[in-house]
From TrEMBL:
Keyword field: Membrane, Transmembrane, Transmembrane helix
Transmembrane annotation, as ranges: 66-85, 91-110
Top-rank taxon, per record: Bacteria
Protein name as catalogued: Integral membrane protein
Taxonomic lineage of the native organism: Bacteria, Bacillati, Actinomycetota, Actinomycetes, Streptosporangiales
Length: 116
């Protein structure tokens, strides 16, 4: 439950920083928040895998890496929507979904570059 409080505090801090710094820092703030969120999600996944007794597999390339990104986006999108809308209103909602869109866009771009 502590992770949810940390995410909420990070989101509030990011929205407040955006208000203070203005729109020219929005991209950097979003990237910073998304990085922290990504680290939190990775930590949770590792903890759940370890708790379930699943062996830690060596890194291998999946045949379709888009599926985990899409499912992860929806998985974090639903609670982030509620948290952001409740605590920061429309600006928080846009910031949260902007980060999710940015992650998906970056993933799609990297897959597109791999094919070329």
């Amino acid at each position: 439950m502590q992770d949810y409080q940390d995410i909420r505090q990070d989101m509030r801090a990011t929205v407040e920083a955006r208000r203070d710094l203005g729109p020219e820092y929005e991209t950097a703030l979003i990237e910073s928040f998304v990085s922290r969120l990504d680290a939190t999600i990775a930590h949770r996944v590792r903890a759940e895998m370890h708790a379930a007794g699943a062996p830690m597999a060596k890194s291998r390339k999946s045949s379709n890496g888009s599926i985990p990104i899409a499912l992860g986006s929806m998985g974090i999108g639903i609670p982030l929507t509620a948290i952001a809308a409740q605590n920061a209103g429309t600006a928080g909602l846009l910031l949260a979904w902007g980060g999710i869109v940015a992650i998906n866009f970056a993933h799609a771009l990297s897959r597109w570059r791999e094919r070329d």
